[in-house]
Amino acid sequence: MTTREVLYAGEPATPDPTLPLEPTAPGGALPVLQDGLGCHAGADTLRAAAEAAGKSAVLEQYAKDYPKGPHDQPQSMCPAFGSLRVGLRMRRTATVLSGSACCVYGLSFTSHFYGARRTVGYVPFNSETLVTGKLFEDIRESVYQLADPAKYDAVVIINLCVPTASGVPLQLLPKQINGVRIIGIDVPGFGVPTHAEAKDVLAGAMLRYARLEAEQGPVQAPRGGVSATPTVTLLGEMFPADPVGIGMLLEPLGLAAGPSVPTREWRDLYAALDCAVVGAIHPFYTASIREFEAAGRTVVGSGPVGVEGTAAWLQAIGDACGTSQKAIDSAKQKFLPAIQGALARFPVKGRITLSGYEGSELLVARLLVESGAEVPYVGSACPRTPWSDADRAWLEAHGTHVQFRASLENDLAAMEAFQPDLAVGTTPVVQAAKEKAIPALYFTNLISARPLFGPAGAGSLAQVVNGALRNKDRFTRFKRFFAGVGEGHAAGVWEDVPEDRPEFREHYRRHLAKQAAKKKAEDMV
Length: 525
What we know:
The structure is a single chain. The protein is α/β, with parallel strands linked by helices. It has helices at about 45-65, 80-90, 100-115, 125-130, 135-145, 160-165, 195-215, 240-250, 265-275, 285-295, 305-320, 325-345, 360-370, 390-395, 410-420, 425-435, 445, 455-470, 470-480, 500-525, and strands at about 10, 95-100, 120, 155-160, 175, 180-185, 220, 230-235, 255-260, 275-280, 300, 350-355, 375-380, 400-405, 420-425, 440. It has 20 helices and 16 strands. The strands form four sheets. The chain has a five-stranded mixed beta sheet, sandwiched between helices. The chain has a five-stranded parallel beta sheet with strand order 14-13-12-15-16, with helices on both faces. It has a four-stranded parallel beta sheet with strand order 9-8-10-11, with helices on both faces.
């Protein structure tokens, strides 16, 4: 599908079971599964086991798509939550986990905490079923039981760390059963750095399947019908009002906002591929971008945030679509004054450090800077990509240090160095800031959960940020009121202040080091 458009049919397309979606093991044989591997084995041990079990190609692709350097894997929730979230948010899609029970429990809890409202499937295993290959047969059986075309368009199977390390070969599952697509992916914590990038793992796999389907012939049209206007596919999860606002920005260009990827239904994948251009709002969707480029689509980075960001984005989108400069200028003249007015009505005054793991940190920082804030530091758990370079360069030109693959230590060090009036970050950053009487906002729940683009974004972000900045005096009063209750080992109210015994911690550290050395020596025998 490199030059022609997607062809739609009136009825659902049946997947072609011969599509070359994933490589299979040589000769179709199951790899030898290894015993004794658990979550406690450590990333290096699990990675080595996965490579020995035939998962080298998967891990090598993940290393290219989601590079870890210069820091190791940042501190974040289990990466598999990202893929699980994508599957659970889709209509007519069943999502099944294969992993240790403790991991499945945590992922299920987190998904329902965030309002999944759909069942999380689970195929349990023990050492015997893992080693003998019975786990794969159990997964295959569960897939056949779920593959009801009256209920589902697709069934997603996600291998967590232990099944991946043991080489459970999801690529040997049928590509479709009774017209229901089967998508098997490995999402190990030792191979995918963050849950944000794990969203791309599943989104990319689905786009590939849908692209190959579209190349075979007519496919199912979107639920709302095929757009009569060329569309811009939006890459990355966004606040629900943002695609509507972006659509208004695109209207003077003769364009419309297309589906957002990850999509909410399988049929939307075809419409996403059938676009004029892709807007990589979240720039780390490397696997998804690879599929769009394979379909012949141009990908534009950044997003319409603030005055300068919106002007640059409209220009880039218009140029990619061959829109006349007159139409591009008309769009700028229509919307930029409104955005400028919103920024002027809701200025932000203060020094703010910002960090997160959603992938939109640079866009938020740009909007804060244009709102009048001083932003000396932005940390993102996601990697640097070509589609984030424009935002990075803009921020650096405005005095902001941008840290990709930021660790918690990076974020805390920045807060200590810059002493901000407000810290926006992850839960531990917010906790550390409040302990120092620095107002703080949790990025995911309080920043991502509001409009970001166009005039609405400027006003919405300023309201929550200015509200937090006004809390400085309240935090100072709290700090003064609770003075003397102690910190760390002495936290709380005591008759006698506890004595710190660092020698105990050192003794325990040496004990753990000896245990680790002993285990390593035993493994080498």
